[in-house]
Write a structure and sequence with these properties.
10 strands, globular, alpha/beta, 3-stranded mixed sheet, 49% helix
Length: 365
């Protein structure tokens, strides 16, 4: 047996152990929709303002925005929406929702300060003059459920908490590219993020939604400190922590809507995320190689195929084990039975993204 085969075997074993730990972490750190925290306890007596930067009007915008609007109305949480260009098509969607909603939303339109990160610039102009103890930010493609505001803000009852974040899962459209897009997020990114929290503790924010105490944000340099970074969610959490506040993980899982897009757009978006991860966590990114056990199994099978065709069963066995490990977490991960045969394709896509992310410039969203 050559040294290469031994190394590949070690890769497979390490990947299997990693996957088992990561999927177990999902069960420990993420609440399934049926058991998600609903904020039964009273929220802290703080002024909370929900903010959502917008750009464009894809098909998912209206239902996602309506979910936040509904939650804001039920919790009496002020809502601020903002975009850069007065001609942005998001304005029409917001106007339709305003017409059928009694709870008001404050609209902010403006370019914000110059910088490399347009989302952060938009948030700066949105929050100028807003009086809040806690800013609850969520992305335009995020759908929230009942109890979202209370769950995300409950940790602020502890005055040492400066920022909260929670996991998210992708909800695909009917197209194959969209389904694989969601599978990469739900079966690779989400388990890896949960395992990182379990092993290292929480030292990052997940951009789908973050709540931050404004006093901690001010000590951390404000949003202006994020204008030149592509990883605004990660650096916001790091800055808040460096300023002396603690971070809190909320086990609520919000939904990230994934529209049907071309293969190229799907690959480019995941590639951007990979490059941002490499930009802020180089050694952690390099360590992600161990997670791609399906690729290692295919390489072992290809290397030993001339000895026996039975080696083709190795990658098959790998994906069968993945199905068995993932299926008990199907509600949390949003898995359906029809997704299971697509796991090999999702693994290949995830590996191609990993390889592509090794080079190239990290860009903001």
């Amino acid at each position: 047996m050559t040294a290469a085969i031994v190394a590949l075997d070690g890769w497979v074993v390490s990947a299997l152990a990693y996957r088992w730990l990561a999927i177990r972490a999902v069960g420990r750190l993420c609440a399934s929709p049926s058991s998600a925290p609903r904020g039964e306890t009273d929220p802290p007596s703080l002024r909370i303002v929900a903010i959502r930067p917008l750009h464009g009007a894809p098909a998912w915008l209206e239902p996602c925005l309506e979910s936040l609007w509904q939650e804001s109305a039920e919790t009496r949480t002020p809502l601020v929406l903002g975009w850069v260009d007065s001609a942005d098509p998001a304005a029409e969607v917001v106007a339709r929702l305003q017409a059928r909603r009694s709870w008001p939303a404050e609209i902010r339109v403006g370019s914000g300060p110059p910088g490399d990160n347009p989302k952060v610039a938009n948030m700066i102009q949105m929050t100028s003059g807003v009086h809040a103890d806690v800013l609850l930010q969520s992305d335009a493609d995020v759908r929230v459920g009942p109890g979202y505001v209370a769950a995300m803000t409950a940790p602020f009852a502890d005055p040492d908490i400066g920022l909260t974040t929670c996991p998210y899962r992708s909800v695909p459209g009917p197209g194959l590219a969209s389904r694989l897009d969601a599978l990469v997020t739900n079966t690779h990114f989400l388990p890896s993020a949960c395992l990182a929290v379990e092993i290292e503790g929480l030292h990052f924010g997940l951009g789908a939604t973050i709540a931050v105490r404004t006093s901690a944000l001010a000590r951390a340099g404000g949003l202006d400190a994020l204008l030149r970074t592509p990883a605004d969610d990660y650096m916001l959490a790091r800055n808040v922590e460096a300023a002396g506040a603690r971070l809190a993980w909320v086990p609520l899982v919000v939904e990230h809507e994934v529209a049907d897009q071309s293969w190229r757009r799907v690959f480019q978006r995941h590639l951007r995320w990979a490059r941002v991860t490499r930009h802020v966590r180089l050694w952690g990114y390099c360590g992600q190689l161990v997670t791609h056990g399906g690729i290692a199994c295919m390489m072992v099978a290809a290397s030993l195929l001339t000895r026996s065709p039975a080696w083709l069963l190795l990658p098959v066995a790998w994906w069968l084990m993945q199905m068995l490990m993932l299926w008990p977490r199907r509600e949390t991960l949003g898995l359906r039975a029809g997704d299971l045969p697509l796991l090999p394709l999702a693994d290949v896509l995830a590996f191609l993204v990993f390889v592509g992310g090794i080079v190239g410039r990290a860009e903001p969203s």
